[in-house]
Design goal:
2 copies of one chain form a homodimer.
Chain A: E1 2-7, E2 30-31, E3 37-38, H1 40-50, E4 57-62, H2 63-73, E5 78-82, H3 88-101, E6 109-114, E7 117-119, H4 121-135, E8 141-146, E9 157-160, E10 170-176, H5 181-189, E11 193-202, H6 203-213, H7 219-224, H8 234-239, E12 245-250, E13 254-256, H9 260-265, E14 271-272, E15 275-278, E16 284-287, E17 293-296, E18 301-306, E19 309-314, H10 321-325, E20 334-337, E21 340-349, E22 355-363, E23 368-373, E24 377-385, E25 387-392, E26 395-400, E27 404-407, E28 413-417, E29 421-429, E30 438-440
Parallel strand pairs in A: 1-4, 1-6, 4-5, 8-12, 14-16, 15-17, 16-18
Antiparallel strand pairs in A: 2-3, 6-11, 7-13, 8-11, 9-10, 9-11, 10-12, 18-19, 20-21, 21-22, 22-29, 23-28, 23-30, 24-27, 24-29, 25-26, 25-28
C-alpha cells in the first residue's frame, strides 16, 4: 500500500506560532514517546511507521511547505508539490500519477489522508483494514467513518445503507455535508458517521477517473499544465459520483488540534521555552523568543510568543483569534527552510522610504542557499558562528565567524555551510520583500 | 530657593520596563496636559516649574542614571553624580556643596525631595511654604508631613508636639519608623503624619553639619574622596539629631507608582504601542516591541513587553514580581543614553564559548559616542539611516546609510551623528560585557 498525506493550510488560528509560512502541522509542541518534541506531521508519519503500514509515503503539498517538510521529515518520504494552488482533486491526481510514474501497479491500494489529525494507534489499524478492503474488492472506494460523539454541525456525515454496530466495512447510502444539529441527531440515529477525510482506493481506479476528466496526462504533463486543471474537490469529483462506496468505522480518539483551545489539551508540557510562572492554573505558556516570559496569576489562558508577535488569550476565547490577526504582519518573521531557519530580529521603515530588515540565519552543514541576486536591496552578512563557502559574482571563498560580506544589489551570491553556519543579515532598500529574488543554477 | 531632586533606585518592580539601567522614574507612561507622554521625573520637574517655585533644580543621582536624565530633561536642570554609591547624607551634602560652589548664599532655602512622587499642585504649594518657613526661622529643618489616610505599617511617622488640624508648621516631638498597625492607629490619633521624604533647610545649616562630620571638604574634595565618606542616611545624621524641627502638613494626592498595580491606576491610556485587544476589562497592555501583542479576554491584568522580556500578570499579584525576575537577564536589553538609545535585538552563546550580540542603536544629531576601544570583542557596524562622522584609529571619515565598518579588538573608535544616525552593531567575542570599554579624550 501507498499513503498520500495531504499537507495544506496556512492558518493563523495558532498565531503567533503559525503564520503564512508555517502551518500548524509543523509546530513541534507534541511529545514523542521518548520525550523529544515532535510536530503533528512528524507524529502522523511516526504512527504510520509504528503501525507497519508502509514506508512509501508521499506528501502532496504546496511549494511554500516543501522546505518545512524536508527539514522535519528529510528522507522519510517523497514530496509532490503543486506548482500552483488548485483544489484536492488535481492535487491527489498529481500525487497518484507520481506513484504511477514510479512504477506503482494499478491494483496497489492507496490511502489518502490528512497529515494533522490527532489520533491513536487504532486509527492506523483501521487504515490497514481499509487498504485490505479495496484489495479484496469490497468497494471501489472505502472511506473512514468516525463514530460521532455528539451531533456536530461542522462535519460531513456518511450515511450507511443500514445501521450496524460492528467495525466491518458497510455500504454507503449517501453523504450529508454539515447538517444543522437536529438533522445531525437524526443522522446519528440512522447510524451515520463523520467523514474523517481518509480514503482508500486502488491506484488504477483513480487513474481511470483522471484519464476521463483530464485525458492523456502523465505526471510530467500534469505538472506542466497544472494551472489549467479544473479547480474541483476530490469529494465532488470522486466521492459523490462513486457507485461502489463503503465506510469503515473508527471509534477512537480523533481530534483537530487546530485552535489553541484544542491543541493545549494535548500538550504534555504546559510551559515551553524561557518561561517563569507563578500561580498559573490551567494555563499554557509557549515562548519561542530568547527573552523571558513571566506569567503570574494567569488562569485558563494561553500565552504564546514568537518572532511574529505575542498572544495572551483566555483559552475559551482563543477561537476569536483569526479575525484579529489577519490584518497583522505582512511578512512571516520566522521560517523553517530546506537549508535551515531564519528569524527577523529587527525591522524599521524610515521617513525617507528606505527600510532596514535584520535577520539571524542558520544553515545546516552541507545545505546551501541558492545562487541568487536581488534588484532592490543590499545585504550585509556578518558571520558569527561556523564555517562555509561563499560564491560572490562567480568567485569562491571560504567564510567563517568574524567575516563580513557586503552584497550590492544585482550581485550574484550563494552560500553553503560546512559546519552549522550562523550569520546576521542586514537588508537595506526601498522594498524588502521575499519576492525580490532571482535564482540561478549553480554546481557546487 | 533651590531644589535637590533625589533620583535613585534601580528597581525591577516594574519589570520588564524597568531594569538595572532604567528606573521607574524614566518610564514615559504618564500623560502631560497637552496629551504628550511624560515620565515621573519629567512630571515632577514640570510641576515645579508650573508652580513657579524655582528654575534652579539639581538632581542628585548615580552615574548610571546620568544619561537618562540628560536625555529626558536636557538643560532644564543640573546633575550632580555620586562617583560611587554611598547613602543619602553624603549624596545630599555633595549636592549642597555643589550649590555652594556655584555661589549660593548660606541663607538660601533648599528643598530636598524625591523625583518620583505622584502628587498634585497643592504639594508644590506646601513646598513653597516650607521654604518660606526656613527663611522665616520657624525651624532649622522643616519636613513635609503627609496626612495619613489609613494606619499603614510601611511608612515612617512624624509626631507633632500637639495634635492640630490646620495647615501651618508645627513643632515635631519625635519620629517613629514603620510601626505596627495598632501603633500606627495610636500615632494617627495623636495627629502624626507620614514622612514624605521632603526636607527644607537653609544651605548654611547643612554646610555646618557637613563641616562637623566631614571637615574641610569643598565640592571638589567631596567628589575626589567620595568613596571614603561615611555610609549614613540623611534621616539618621540630620533629621533625628535636629533640635529645631517642624512639620508642614499636606493632605492631597500622594502616591508611589512603584508597582504595576499602583502605576496602572494613573495611566490615561490603557494600551501603549502595537497592541490589539478584544474583550479585555480593567487591563493594561504596554508594548515597547515592534511585533504586535494580541490580548483576548484578559481581565484585571497587566501585559508588558520590552526588549528585556514579557510580563503577563494579574494586577493584584504583580507585587510578587521582584523575586521572580531578580534572577533573569544579566544585562539590560534597552537603555536610554546621553547620545540616544539602543536595544539588544539578538544574543547567542555558542558551544565553543563565543558569543554574538546584535544591537540597534540610534544617535541624536550632534551627539557622539566617546572615543573608545574594547579588548575582548570585535564590532561590525552596518549603517541603515542618516549620516555621521567616524573616527577609526585616529582617521576621520563620514559614514552614511549603506556603509559597513568593522572594528577589531583594540581599535580606537568614536562616532558622531550629523543627522539621526541608526546602525546595526554585531558584537563578537568570548565576553560581551558593557565593562569591556576604555574611554579616551577626543576633540571633535
Amino acid at each position: 500500500m501507498k499513503i498520500i498525506l495531504l499537507s495544506g493550510g496556512s492558518g493563523k488560528r495558532l498565531w503567533p506560532l503559525s503564520n503564512d509560512a508555517r502551518s500548524k502541522q509543523f509546530l513541534r509542541l507534541l511529545t514523542r514517546p521518548d520525550g523529544e518534541p515532535e510536530s503533528m506531521i512528524q507524529r502522523v508519519v511516526r504512527q504510520i511507521k509504528d503501525a507497519g503500514l508502509t514506508d512509501d509515503i508521499v506528501v502532496a503539498t504546496g511549494i511554500n511547505q516543501k522546505d518545512a517538510i524536508e527539514s522535519q521529515l528529510g528522507d522519510a518520504l517523497s514530496i509532490v508539490t503543486e506548482p500552483c494552488r488548485r483544489d484536492t482533486f488535481p492535487a491527489i491526481v498529481l500525487a497518484c500519477s507520481y506513484l504511477a510514474s514510479k512504477g506503482t501497479p494499478a491494483d496497489e491500494p492507496v490511502i489518502v489522508m490528512p497529515c494533522d489529525s490527532y489520533t491513536e494507534a487504532q486509527y492506523f489499524k483501521v487504515i490497514g483494514r481499509m487498504a485490505h478492503a479495496v484489495s479484496d474488492g469490497v468497494a471501489d472506494l472505502v472511506l473512514m467513518g468516525i463514530r460521532p460523539t455528539y451531533p456536530s454541525a461542522k462535519y460531513g456525515y456518511i450515511v450507511p445503507a443500514e445501521k450496524a454496530e460492528g467495525d466491518g466495512a458497510q455500504p454507503v447510502k449517501r453523504f450529508t455535508e454539515k447538517p444543522d444539529v437536529p438533522t445531525a441527531e437524526k443522522l446519528i440515529a440512522e447510524g451515520a458517521f463523520w467523514n474523517g477525510g481518509v480514503f482508500a482506493f486502488r491506484l488504477g481506479y483513480l487513474s481511470d477517473i483522471a484519464a476521463r476528466v483530464m485525458p492523456g496526462m502523465d505526471f510530467k504533463a500534469l505538472r506542466n499544465n497544472y494551472a489549467t486543471l479544473p479547480k474541483i474537490s476530490f469529494d465532488y469529483e470522486v466521492v459523490e459520483k462513486a457507485t461502489s462506496v463503503a465506510v469503515m468505522p473508527y471509534a477512537g480518539q480523533w481530534k483537530d488540534l487546530g485552535t489553541w483551545n484544542t491543541l493545549t489539551d494535548e500538550l504534555e508540557q504546559p510551559f515551553h521555552g524561557n518561561v517563569v510562572v507563578e500561580d498559573c492554573g490551567n494555563s499554557y505558556v509557549i515562548n519561542e523568543l530568547e527573552i523571558p516570559v513571566v506569567a503570574i496569576g494567569a488562569k485558563s489562558m494561553v500565552i504564546a510568543a514568537s518572532p511574529d508577535g505575542i498572544l495572551v488569550s483566555e483559552l475559551a476565547k482563543s477561537e476569536n483569534l483569526k479575525h484579529l490577526v489577519d490584518g497583522l504582519g505582512k511578512r512571516p518573521m520566522y521560517e523553517e527552510r530546506r537549508w535551515g531557519e531564519y528569524k527577523v530580529i529587527d525591522y524599521i521603515e524610515f521617513k525617507d522610504g528606505n527600510c532596514a530588515l535584520t535577520k539571524q540565519l542558520t544553515l545546516r552543514p552541507g545545505c546551501s542557499i541558492s545562487y541568487q541576486r536581488h534588484s532592490f536591496r543590499t545585504e550585509t552578512w556578518t558571520f558569527i558562528n561556523g564555517e562555509g563557502e561563499l560564491v560572490l559574482n562567480g568567485e569562491r571563498r571560504t567564510v567563517k565567524a568574524g567575516d563580513v560580506i557586503t552584497i550590492g544589489s544585482g550581485e550574484m551570491h550563494a552560500l553553503r555551510a560546512t559546519t552549522p553556519l550562523t550569520f546576521i543579515e542586514v537588508q537595506q532598500g526601498t522594498s524588502l520583500v521575499e519576492d525580490d529574488i532571482e535564482r540561478f543554477d549553480f554546481e557546487w
